[in-house]
Amino acid sequence: MAGTQKDAAQKERQVVLSVHDLTVGFGSTIVLDNLNLDIYRGEILGFVGASGTGKSVLMRTVLRLLPRRGGSIKILGTDYDEATDEQRVALDTRLGVLFQHGALFSSLTVKENIQLPMREYLDLPQSLMDELAFLKIEMVGLAPEAADKYPSELSGGMIKRAALARALALDPDLVFLDEPTSGLDPIGAAEFDMLIARLRDTLGLTVYMVTHDLDSLFSVCDRIAVLGQKRVLVEGTLEDMFAFDDPWVQSYFRGKRARSVVTTEQDATPTAQSD
Ligand SMILES: Nc1ncnc2c1ncn2[C@@H]1O[C@H](COP(=O)(O)OP(=O)(O)OP(=O)(O)O)[C@@H](O)[C@H]1O
């Protein structure tokens, strides 16, 4: 799509998260410097960057778990700095988070983990919270029996799904996924990617996914943003990544591993029948 057409198309779409001139640092070290990023409703944005560039710092700052030195963050059009306490709480319920390694509470069952955000933000009778927890469990493809299991009784893939169910507990608009497929085998990772794409389609979710997984980037992400040099170095489609003249971006998207993923994806794509 030509640049101006693409710009116009993006303007039509609702911005769910808007980060403007964000600066974050620790002591004398600046990690993010005047960073800008928009995420649009219904998209899956894959966020990549070399290790230590600040992907987690950005996610944690947007979630208000880290302070910032400058810039603004708008969620669904509301600026956190200008929001009242009540509005901030309301905004927090619009966000779901799946932290790296799941981060479930080990002393709570899956059902109790899913109900934690409900207890924190909603005032619902236990029977309704149970019903909702079972709904989320089904949504992420876990068997109902998983509800009463503790995290130590679950496989890695089941932990990810349970953590996703907890992220969906409050029916968020935007979910943050921090390396959701890390530690999963390729089949488990592909299934998890498909689950995320299905939830996006059925629930209209917007997904912000920090990932190192080329398969995820190539198969489910609508758009990719690369973090480098303390800012978003490039954002766009895979074609935009291939065309971007930067050594890290080139070696990441055109390297040996990327080529093997592209080849596998092409092999898996059904070709048109010729008459
Ligand atoms: N609480 C903190 N205090 C001081 N420095 C921090 C803190 N959190 C992160 N950093 C530093 O900020 C930089 C970015 O870290 P971050 O964890 O965001 O990287 P990342 O891009 O997520 O890396 P990876 O891909 O390896 O997970 C690193 O240099 C890290 O040491």
TrEMBL record:
Classify the source by domain of life. Bacteria
| GO MF term (any one) | ATP hydrolysis activity
Q: Which Gene3D superfamilies match?
A: P-loop containing nucleotide triphosphate hydrolases
InterPro entries the UniProt entry points to: AAA+_ATPase, ABC_transporter-like_ATP-bd, ABC_transporter-like_CS, P-loop_NTPase
**Pfam families in UniProt:** ABC_tran (PF00005)
The reply on keyword Transport is yes
Q: Which residues form the ABC transporter domain?
A: 17-254
* UniProt keywords, alphabetically: ATP-binding, Nucleotide-binding, Transport
PROSITE patterns (UniProt xref): ABC_TRANSPORTER_1 (PS00211), ABC_TRANSPORTER_2 (PS50893)
Q: In its keyword annotation, does this UniProt entry include ATP-binding? A: yes
Q: Which family does it belong to?
A: Belongs to the ABC transporter superfamily.
Q: What is this protein called?
A: Iron ABC transporter ATP-binding protein
